[in-house]
Structure to design on (296 residues):
């Protein structure tokens, strides 16, 4: 009984913590998306043509102006008229929430890798929704949806807590044929999972971007002398008296990992991009947005 009460209390605490951070994440994503919408690159597209594709049932968050009232009058619900181009567009996101993504170096106002990934991912979702596209999280079973209500669902899912491994591995559950996708992670875990995910995506005609997000300390390895290294979950600990002697080997492995990711993207038709958390989110969003626009 006590264990059940403890579990319930822990679940409630995580839920309240996620709910408290939800407005801030949404606001940050909206502001970030506005830098694209208000710039030279911001534009809404009707698609490659107006060829009729299908009627679909209206969903929460769909604008009233999109409802086809003539078709809706023939049935019991409201229906939207979609063109062929609009029906084909879906943007799927995988945001790594593993423990390693919680790392933030000693910079004063530097966000964690996780927070930057969440903000960038949700900003891309905002841009997709405002362009009339569907969007969703590849790690969840729900299909991509249109409308502003979907942004709230995605933000809530991104803020969920719980037990996570040290390093993340993309295992998409939903990846519509011919859609676009963005994977946001530090990609410091097993590369085999990334290979499997991108190969499967390419087989379904899915193209997109791998955005590797790193803290500048992970690039510079500014450690020397006696140092205790500990994984973010605390599961792995390593202490050395000569941390500086590890720098060259560490940097060589990091360079090799980056090269492997670039090669994988080249083979599967994806793009590789790198972002450091001491840089601005705007500087990362524009290349992402531009790369996805070219995939249309």
């Amino acid at each position: 009984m006590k264990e059940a009460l403890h579990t319930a209390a822990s679940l409630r605490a995580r839920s309240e913590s996620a709910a408290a951070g939800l407005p801030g994440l949404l606001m940050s994503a909206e502001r970030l998306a506005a830098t694209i919408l208000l710039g030279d690159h911001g534009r809404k597209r009707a698609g490659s043509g107006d060829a009729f594709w299908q009627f679909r049932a209206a969903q929460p968050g769909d604008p009233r102006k999109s409802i086809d009232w003539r078709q809706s009058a023939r049935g019991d619900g409201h229906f939207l008229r979609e063109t062929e181009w609009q029906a084909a567009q879906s943007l799927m996101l995988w945001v790594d929430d593993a423990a390693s993504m919680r790392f933030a170096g000693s910079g004063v106002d530097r966000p964690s890798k996780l927070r930057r990934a969440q903000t960038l991912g949700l900003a891309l979702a905002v841009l997709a929704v405002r362009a009339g596209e569907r969007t969703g999280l590849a790690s969840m079973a729900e299909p991509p949806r249109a409308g502003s209500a979907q942004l709230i669902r995605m933000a809530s899912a991104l803020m969920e807590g719980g037990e996570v491994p040290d390093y993340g591995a993309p295992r998409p559950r939903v990846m519509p044929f011919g859609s676009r996708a963005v994977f946001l992670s530090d990609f410091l875990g097993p590369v085999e999972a990334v290979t499997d995910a991108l190969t499967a995506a390419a087989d379904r005609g899915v193209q997109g971007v791998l955005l590797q997000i790193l803290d500048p300390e992970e690039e510079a390895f500014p450690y020397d002398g006696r140092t205790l290294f500990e994984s973010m979950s605390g599961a792995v600990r390593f202490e050395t008296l000569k941390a500086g002697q590890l720098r060259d080997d560490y940097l060589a492995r990091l360079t090799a990992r980056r090269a492997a990711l670039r090669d994988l993207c080249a083979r599967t038709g994806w793009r590789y991009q790198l972002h450091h958390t001491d840089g601005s989110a705007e500087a990362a969003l524009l290349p992402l947005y531009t790369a996805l626009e070219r995939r249309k």
Notes: The radius of gyration is 21 Å. Residues 52-83 form one domain. The CA atoms of residues 61 and 147 lie 4 Å apart.
